Amino acid sequence: MSANPQPLMPHATASWMVDNTGLSFEQIADFCGLHILEVQAMADDLASSKYTGRDPVRAGELTMAEIEKGQADSDYRLKIIAGPAQVRRTKGPRYTPVSKRQDKPDGIAWILRNHPEISDAQIGKLIGTTRNTIAAIRDRSHWNISNIQPKDPVTLGLCSQRELDAIVGKAAKKAGIAEQAPTDTRLGGDREALIEELRAEREAANRAAEDAAREAAIESALLGDDAAASEDQNG
């Protein structure tokens, strides 16, 4: 698969190229950043999803001259005119891929259970959901409540750990939780105990190595004495 810029909709573009060009599967796969077997499956109608073809020429990502050059030489690798513009999200709800939208209720339930100090507005912005959905999960009136399992939204890919930590910190500060939380000193004690344990293990290993070396030296010396005695007898 190519590391070069890819068309905005690689699968749809590959589908169009399979149906409308004489390019090899390898050329199409390279241009679209797909595995050659994916392209082969599209050509054989074995792909799990059916894609509506997208013309890269009309999209301004490729020229017919470039396609013709590729058709004339199967070793030629097509060059995209320009990679798709990177869209920077500024305001509005977070966009979540369709494949992950079904995970949103699980992520919301996890936040409600583990961080009740976070407001509905903050959850909505973090996960990309509505207050009605949050309220339905909170009061267990959600239509699919029996199947909702609280899961870490970071693990689900709904947000980054940095984003979650930032909102948790902001909510905790607003609620005064950070100042009231007692300092947990157990970690320090555990750390010291671990250091002592590791030090003791290292010293024991060193002693064992020294004992083994000493025994080996004694055994070698004894073998040397036996060999010398045997030579004397033979002499």
Give your account of this protein's structure.
This protein is an all-alpha fold. The protein has helices at residues 10-20, 25-32, 36-43, 64-72, 98-101, 104-114, 120-128, 131-138, 153-156, 161-175, 177-180, 186-234. The relative contact order is 0.07.
The residue ranges in which pLDDT falls below 50 over 5 or more consecutive positions are: 83-90, 179-188
CA-to-CA gap between the ends?
A: 77 Å
Strand content: under 5%
| Gyration radius over CA | 33 Å
Q: Which structural class best describes the helix and strand composition?
A: mainly alpha
Biggest beta-sheet profile:
none
Give the helix level as a range of percent. Answer: 55-70%
**DSSP E strands, number:** 0
Summed up, the helix count is 12
The string of secondary-structure elements, in order, is HHHHHHHHHHHH
Q: What is the molecular shape?
A: flat
- Report the average pLDDT across residues: 78
Instruction: Name the quaternary structure.
Output: single chain
